[in-house]
Amino acid sequence: MKKSIFAAAAMLGALAMVATGCAGGGAPGAGGNGGGSDLITVGFAQTGSESGWRAANTESMKKAFSEENGFKLTFNAADNKQEAQISAVRNFINQGVDAIVIAPITVDGWDDVLKEAKDAGIPVILEDRTVSASDDLYASWVGLDFEQEGRTAGEWVKENFDGKGANLVVLEGTTGSSAALDRATGFDEAIKGTDVKVMDSQTGDFTRDGGKKVMEGYLQKYGKDINVLFAHNDDMGLGALDAIKAAGLTPGKDIQIVTIDAVKDGMTALANGEFNFIVECNPLLGEKAAALVKDVVDGKTVEKRTIVEDQSFTQEQAAEVLDSRPY
Ligand code: GZL
Q: What's the whole-model pTM score?
């Protein structure tokens, strides 16, 4: 009895609040930010903080999705765990944001939550990595050509080591991520037909610690037989430097190193001769992602895919540009 009287009173109270506009939630299109505000509410589900690249990408996104640029940003970093990232997206849907941006940790597992966002009428923009889900489940993607990045790294290996009976080991990025999958595809394609021997290939999860641990294992197993290391990102390569030096070997000479990203610490290692070649992967995607969100929320038609250009660097080129690099 008591419960039903309480429920009735609560209902009357709620009806009164809605009638006087105190219920918050705002008019449609003003997102879940308490009504009235013309800021575009955006939920950004970032992978985590696994690397220097990720830090630069997060900074670029937060700068672009600022209040002075017309956004109210809710940021979540998922500590490189996809289930945490998916639950962050579900929270954004429940908050009724105007748009959701995702840097998807892995390619698979997104269909259900992207359908939930679509059913809720909330557009999703992907930045950085891609997903295997149908592209009618998201409005647009902005990122890099990972396959070309891997191909460019492989072409450098072919150019410098084909015909020399070189032994190579690989530090792969996060298992199941489009960055790792596509870089491997491009790299393998480039070295096909050469006599470069890939002795081992394991994931270091894009982290320094992961790169160091896997490289320690490679050195115990293969020792001085290793001539070349291909790391899917600078951070794993930087972690491998510690292991190579601890084994009494000279990185850049005893073991030549090619990586991808071109973040400050990687370019410093390249300029000082510890790395031998870096393929850039531009993390500054914030402005493009913010422009896509604005256009989509305004109901404009947008390109389904936007690829940002990359470049590559030798040791000499790194020394020249190091001080002027934006990240
Ligand atoms: C690439 C990005 C990768 C970087 C890593 O766009 O997804 O993830 O290469 C980062 O440094 O962790």
A: 0.89
Contact 280, 262 (CB under 8 A): yes
Residue 324 included in any domain: no
* Any ligand 1 atom below 6 A from CB of 53: yes
Q: Is 142 exposed, middle or buried (0-12, 13-18, 19+ CB in 10 A)?
A: buried
Q: Do 250 and 159 fall into the same domain?
A: yes
Ligand 1 touching residue 233 (CB < 6 A): yes
CATH of residue 230's domain is 3.40.50.2300
From first to last of its 327 residues, the chain has per-residue pLDDT tens of: 334 444 455 455 445 444 443 333 333 344 444 445 799 999 999 999 999 999 999 999 999 999 999 999 999 999 999 999 999 999 999 999 999 999 999 999 999 999 999 999 999 999 999 999 999 999 999 999 999 999 999 999 999 999 999 999 999 999 999 999 999 999 999 999 999 999 999 999 999 999 999 999 999 999 999 999 999 999 999 999 999 999 999 999 999 999 999 999 999 999 999 999 999 999 999 999 999 999 999 999 999 999 999 999 999 999 999 999 989
**Sign of the alpha-carbon dihedral angle for 92, 261, 232, 149:** positive
Ligand 1: residue whose CA is nearest its atom 1: 179
Residue 82 corresponds to which amino acid?
Q
Question: Ligand 1 pocket, 261 CB below 6 A?
Answer: yes
Whether residue 110 sits in one domain with residue 96 = yes
Q: How many structural domains is the chain composed of?
A: 2
Q: Which residue, 238, 289, 228, is CA-closest to 260?
A: 238
